[in-house]
Amino acid sequence: xxxxxxxxxxxxxxxxxxxxxxxxxxxxxxxxxxxxxxxxxxxxxxxxxxxxxxxxxxxxxxxxxxxxxxxxxxxxxxxxxxxxxxxxxxxxxxxxxxxxxxxxxxxxxxxxxxxxxxxxxxxxxxxxxxxxxxxxxxxxxxxxxxxxxxxxxxxxxxxxxxxxxxxxxxxxxxxxxxxxxxxxxxxxxxxxxxxxxxxxxxxxxxxxxxxxxxxxxxxxxxxxxxxxxxxxxxxxxxxxxxxxxxxxxxxxxxxxxxxxxxxxxxxxxxxxxxxxxxxxxxxxxxxxxxxxxxxxxxxxxxxxxxxxxxxxxxxxxxxxxxxxxxxxxxxxxxxxxxxxxxxxxxxxxxxxxxxxxxxxxxxxxxxxxxxxxxxxxxxxxxxxxxxxxxxxxxxxxxxxxxxxxxxxxxxxxxxxxxxxxxxxxxxxxxxxxxxxxxxxxxxxxxxxxxxxxxxxxxxxxxxxxxxxxxxxxxxxxxxxxxxxxxxxxxxxxxxxxxxxxxxxxxxxxxxxxxxxxxxxxxxxxxxxxxxxxxxxxxxxxxxxxxxxxxxxxxxxxxxxxxxxxxxxxxxxxxxxxxxxxxxxxxxxxxxxxxxxxxxxxxxxxxxxxxxxxxxxxxxxxxxxxxxxxxxxxxxxxxxxxxxxxx
Length: 646
Description:
The protein contains 19 helices and 22 strands. It starts with 6 loop residues before the first strand and ends with a helix. Helix 18 (599-615) crosses helix 19 (622-645). The protein is an alpha+beta fold. Strand 10 and strand 11 form a beta hairpin. 38% of the residues lie in helices and 18% in strands.
């Protein structure tokens, strides 16, 4: 039976349907109810402050604007009180008894008409699209509460307005009556009687953790059993001039748990094409991105200081995944649960603005603080390289890429492509590169010899992704990207020698030239189908031999990568190019002329091939190579000993 003076009412039919969806289906995380209640309390305080700023005088005008939460584990209750605008009895019935007021029934009817379903089926199927149309956050409290009492007293009105209580179990009815018990001087008190399986929400540590996660930046103080929880200010909404360096650094540490100060920051405030503020940081440590952490990035998305989504990946492109920070916008339409976002142009626009602002920021850093930019590159360049796939911004991203190269003094030094171009000979229109695990390996690559001889700078690529970057870029300012492994024999013929040639072997006689052709044929016979061809190289100056992809195919590193992806363990068949002037080849020629079937010639040919395969990272049987080398060393030592005896 209703109490004296109690006005017992039923929820409207469409409200009961939507309420059932809200409390049983839509929210995936029950703790969200507290975020919603705090957000509603904050809204009530905001509205009151707005009217005060207009010159209106509320009741108890000296009362602090705040939110207080009290917990009682014995009675399993959670109470949240604000000193905001408050509601009359009529407003309680209207605001809490009707979702979206009179528009809800028509909206559900429209859904039913469009889908050919009844209203309840349509509501269930399309609940996630009921965005921004219903003020539904309050009803999430019924996920954890078996009964809710809302006691409210308006801040404005003639005389001494009464406090009224709205009560419901969220199942079908609600009542509104004048309060004869605990009542606020001003504002609203929500008392939730927790379900048996929701007693965790009567624990102080649990409530504090939820507030720190979702509502830490509400602009009004939030107290839990007398202790303020939200002590960190939302400094991203403050003017840059009002925030100190220490505040910036402390905020970064608070949201990232990093003990170091950040390397860099951006404080962004934008009004068009979409209104938002953002505070973005670049960590001073490398951020693990590849492998298991590939999807563990994004910015925290807020709507009016309330956390909507942690690590939202739609706000930044993948190549800016190193950024940490927050984005706050009031232009964001949310779905009914506020847990997931409608697909809309707002996020895309924010992404575009952040991308352009970040690129401009990095361009300025590269120009004005080159040492700082070099540090940024060493820490985060591996991720930033992925920007080669950003077609609208490709030119700007490419200009920001950095490389080690043969023209630099050590492995830490970096060059941009524009700097590379200024050092290149006038006729050069190609960025040459080589892939290697480290600088020494790149420098000793046999393909480097002709470039060193001609004084042509070569970019050193140390990461597996680098070749994808080069192939993806295609061109930069009409210059091509090309691997030195795929350089045609005459690619550098137009350039003069810059390096003084080492002492060369004497020219071969006509008979020796003919015999050398025979040696090449014999080497092909020994190696069989392991090589496509054996021929004299025009690219080697010092090394005895090198393997070259026929017809400018894949580089060895790219080929290895694809074979690994396809689990292909077969060895590539390439062209073996030999340096006719190398002492080893001259000795092999002498052995061939003396006895073209000499066992040592076969072992030397096989060892030479294995050495080339080893340089390419393809040697499949290192034990066989080691055994041959040991035998040849033993034989060489024996010959040397015998010669010493003579």
